[in-house]
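Good morning C.,

I know you're traveling, so I'll keep this short. The sequence:
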Amino acid sequence: MRRRVLVLTIAAAISQANPPVWGETPTESRTPVAHLFSKPIYAEELEPSPQELQAFKGQRSVEELRQQGLNTRILGALQTHFCATHPCEPSEEEIQSFLQATHPSRTLEQFDAQKASLAQQLESPDASEEQKAKLREELKQVEQAEQLVQGTFAAGSPEQQAQLDASMREVARGFVGTWKFHKALYAAYGGTVIWQQAGVEPVGAYRAWLEELERNGSFQIYDPNFRTQFWEYFVRPHPFTLDDEQARHVFDVPWWLNQTHATER
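The tokens, ready to paste straight into the viewer:
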């Protein structure tokens, strides 16, 4: 299951290539909603672009997109600042290891195995009609996921293949860079670590780090609604929490090379 979600996440990342548009800088007389490294952030700068509105139509409200814009802007700048003094840059070896471990052919093989298993269960005389209905729905989901992966990674012209390879490489660089950032953050701050669809995340370290940066004035969010929503993810309880012993060793090996989790259904 984790491999399926991972490759679908990669496919979505490749298909979404529209960078956020922050708009024009308003006049200095307006009240900022936040400050980031002593520079003001105004509400007008957080308005979603027409491309974003279209891409997330029916999925996210304008308010959610504004919040996403603020969160991305603050966290991106803070991460860049942190990585200037910590080892976050992906190596070529790490990028290649990610590309090999997450190659779509592996996921397609897993889809074939899942479909065969579901078909076998459907033929079982012991399966009730309710169980068969659930199995058919799961089989449908697997087939839809398979079609999405096949469509995203289908071979095309040499130019299209080169573009796809470049996109996959950039996605790999992003995933590996995030993992190295998380590893360095956990080494510096410790705390709770969770499993989520894109790997392990040190949410406890994030919270301690962000609280420290807020105290020293690296960023401030003045608007109460923006501030509440910004902090909500870092202060709420999370499922799939690792115990202390697991957390101490979870960054020993990159998660995409951890076969226990990579092949977990």
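Safe travels,
E.
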